[in-house]
Write a structure and sequence with these properties.
Helix content: 40-55%
Distance between the termini: 38 Å
Number of strands: 8
Radius of gyration: 17 Å
Structural class: alpha/beta
Order of helices and strands: EHEHEHEEHEHEHHEHHH
Largest sheet: 8 strands, mixed
Number of helices: 10
Length: about 250
Amino acid sequence: MISFVVPAYNEADLIGATLESLHQAAGAAKGTPSDGDHPEPYEIIVADDGSNDETAVIAERHGARVVKVAHRQIAATRNSGARETRGEFLIFVDADTIVNATVVRGAVDAMRHGAVGGGAGITFDGAVPLYAEVMTALLVRAFRATGLAAGCFLFCTRAGFEAVGGFDEQYFGGEEIIMSRALKRQGRFVILTHAVTTSGRKLRTHSAREMWGGLAAVALRGLRGVKQRQGMDLWYAPRRRDPKKND
């Protein structure tokens, strides 16, 4: 079984489309010939981290099982969702990210053929500033070259997840990098050539100065800096209204 884990905080605007994409992708992804090439069995777990909007209601309406938590920390929220799963293939998808059958099939095939986990490329859901396009292109290349998964889409086997103890809850950001490195020590970790589509709202609602300044401040503090919520506004500050919603 494929277990999709979707961490969410106040994602009423976007989570419906994300869950629909998971249903469609899983329905189109076929099993092995020995299984009769039937659709893969799957489940969707939404870990609702204290939302005060309609996130949980929308998630249930779209066929997900909702787990209520109150961490306000992405690593802990992902782990809480994973603990409720039953599948052997875990796929962590952010609540603002659209997947497709090709990427899901690629992830499952990789795990069936011995990979302990991996990630995928990313594209954005709409126009973003030029600086963001350049920055993202560089980051995607760097992540692919170093074999690291972007946070919006990471997959691993249950055995791999349990071997590393899940996402490291010491970290309030960059936990996908720590997880990628931990999984790589367990076995083969692959970055798919295919991509998922994630929201570019943060890049549309923050200036280049805010983005670079926030990232630089975190980088200067080093690992100790990402072990606390303070100073992690790019990750945890109240979300600004995305102008794309008015299109």
